[in-house]
Amino acid sequence: MRGATSTGIGAKGKAVVLIDGALPPPPPVGSLSGNAGELDTEDVEAWRRFREVGLLDEAAMERRDREALLERASRLENLKRLLHDLQEEHVLIKKVSDSKLADAKALAAGNEEKSLEVEEKMRVAESKLA
């Protein structure tokens, strides 16, 4: 970049590149301290720090927004996949559960039938003894 300077100061090792003639607009007067019409050194220093860490760099902010959106989209896809897996597991568990319930009902019905047969045989035996 011709005419560009890098401050080398920034959060997390990031450097801000300022292009000659394309500086961000000056800070609004009194916007940070609430004193309309006055611009104290704290405000100037705060705006300088904002600019140094890239908070006034629209392209960097858009890039961060895009990165955050992509991360959220990725998380959403992961959640959708996990939900789908849970739904498949639920269907499988339901099938196994229904099958075991049907087996248990059939076993109970078979036991009831055998119990009736045993009772009948006991009545027959008692009647022979009487």
UniProtKB/TrEMBL annotation:
Give coiled-coil spans as residue ranges.
59-96
Q: Which InterPro entries does the record associate with it? A: CRWN (IPR040418)
Q: Main localisation, per the record? A: nucleus
- Annotated stretches, region: Disordered: 108-130
Q: Which GO cellular component term is one of those annotated?
A: nuclear lamina
- Alphabetic keyword roster: Coiled coil, Nucleus
Which biological processes are named by the entry's GO terms? Answer: nucleus organization
Q: Does the keyword Oxidoreductase apply?
A: no
Residue spans with biased composition (Basic and acidic residues)? Answer: 111-130
Q: Report the locations given in the UniProt record.
A: Nucleus lamina
Family under the similarity heading: Belongs to the CRWN family.
Name listed for the protein in its UniProt record: Uncharacterized protein
Q: Which organism is it from?
A: Populus alba x Populus x berolinensis
